[in-house]
Amino acid sequence: MPQNEGPQHDATPHEGFEEELGAVLRSTGDGFSVDVRSELVAGGLQRGRRRLVRRRLAVTGGVLALAAVGIGGVYGGSLLGPAGQATTTSVAAPPRTGAANGTGSKTESVPELPVKDLAAVLKANVPAGQWQIDNLAGQGHAVVGVYDDGKGKAGVTVGLYRAGTTGEAGEDQVTCPDKVVVPYDRCVSERLPGGDRLMVLQGYEYPDKRVETKNWRAVLLTKDGFLVDASEYNAAAEKGASITRENPPFSGSQLKNLVTAEGWRPLLKKLGETPKPAPGDVQLPPVPSAAAVQATLRSLLPEGVTVKSHGGDDGHGYVVVDDGKGESLVGVDVQPSAGEAVAGLFARDGVVTLPDGTKVRSTQQPGEKGGAGVVWWSVDTLTPEGFRVGVSAFNSGAQHEAATRAEPALTMEQLKALALSPKWRKLPLK
Description:
single chain; 430 residues; 2 domains; seven-stranded antiparallel beta sheet; 16 strands; transmembrane; transmembrane helix; membrane
């Protein structure tokens, strides 16, 4: 399989967006913890815009990240995260009938599957061993268990999901994350004969590796829009369990064989056809392209810094710069239509209102992704028309890595000037 270690993903989740999203998620009511992954996968994957969620929630390490949430972003077994960092969810239920999907429409109910059927396919497509299936008697979309081949217990999860309602839905799930955001040892992404797409990722549960729990994952995106998502660990559980072995039990090729097994196909068919977008569904607002944001960011950097790497997604871009004193991560998010949801973030003490009505919120705080000594400086701006630009800088080349310098390469004044540049409002939207 061809190795791919260079996809561009999100790098700088903004505190404000996480607060907004947290409020939205809390408003969905009871059952969020089991519903969130399916709802995100089923309804939020149009044209990669889900990256905005995954990034700021942080994919097995960020946004895309509820990590970043690194499924991410919801990225690979985790909710949210390429940029993004995410907290992971072991088992997911389908969206409930009538549950709000965040767009103003209703989310269609997805049929549940007998977990015993999922477990039978799982056991038939991995090497022989002892199994403890935690949810064997239930119905759902994932089988969760502990596998033991005599070399140490390992947590294993396999889930089946609808990818979404567009041809591009689910692409983030089978695209290797950016190493600036998500550390991993190996990642391979490929298109299989017949049109399915596959990603196999050998990474870690925690981006800063504060616990040496390894998370190896394989995700298959079928050509007809379904996901088979398998995760394994070198511990009996993804979090809070002692390391039992050096590596998870199944190799990359064995994970590939597992998610591509024919036994999943009849079960996927029971999920029903991928629903078409409803006429009343509210579409996410347009944002500038990834290329336009990255180019503009580079053009606004102060003299004396060298760009070592860059990346991003639509509406988001980042660079790793070095001024001779160490690497520094700088990122920007552009939201042309931020909406009323962010108004409260700019009604706090310390927010400055400029003569044209633009509000400026500046913060300096410790980093949040585990890198030793990392500080996070940010300037968030909002015009009276709702055009929002947020810029962040760190004193490290990656949030989960230790500080390389005392302060970020850009001063707060430079970040403010970058965020307030009129160039952002001139970018074409897509």
